[in-house]
């Protein structure tokens, strides 16, 4: 019985170690996504400022066609920014769900270990009573 219990403890320790590794990778991934989100906002802000400047220059030159083209480019940049932000949010949700799944698996493995341990104890008691 002891060998089986030792193996279960070992596999639980391995699962916990894997979970810690996964959590570390998840924290790194979250940090990278946060940086990506910030970089996207900064890039969009800079592009919008540049296009806004160009649009004002064209308006001053009374080039309505060019100014409307700049406005269209600004809308395109905002649309792309929203799409990228939605993609990042989707990835964050996926990573969050995967983390919850890993925690649930570890909890289930602990419960199985506890059941095996109590079963082994009962079998040992029965063996001792029979002997």
From TrEMBL:
Keyword Repeat recorded: no
Keywords, ordered alphabetically: Coiled coil
BP GO annotations: microtubule anchoring
Source taxonomy: Eukaryota, Metazoa, Chordata, Craniata, Vertebrata
Coiled coil: 74-101
GO cellular component terms attached to this protein's record: centrosome
Protein name, per record: Centrosome-associated protein 350
Classification via PANTHER family: CAP-GLY DOMAIN-CONTAINING PROTEIN-RELATED (PTHR13958:SF3), CENTROSOME-ASSOCIATED PROTEIN 350 (PTHR13958)
Any one GO molecular-function label of the UniProt entry: microtubule binding
């Amino acid at each position: 019985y002891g060998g089986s219990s030792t193996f279960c403890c070992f596999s639980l320790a391995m699962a916990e170690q894997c979970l810690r590794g996964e959590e570390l990778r998840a924290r790194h991934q979250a940090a990278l996504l946060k940086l990506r989100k910030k970089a996207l906002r900064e890039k969009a802000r800079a592009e919008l400022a540049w296009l806004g400047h160009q649009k004002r220059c064209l308006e001053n030159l009374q080039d309505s066609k060019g100014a409307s083209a700049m406005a269209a480019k600004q809308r395109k940049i905002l649309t792309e920014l929203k799409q990228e932000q939605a993609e990042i949010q989707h990835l964050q949700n996926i990573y969050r769900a995967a983390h919850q799944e890993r925690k649930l698996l570890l909890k289930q493995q602990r419960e199985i270990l506890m059941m095996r341990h109590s079963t082994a104890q009962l079998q040992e008691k029965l063996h001792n009573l029979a002997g």
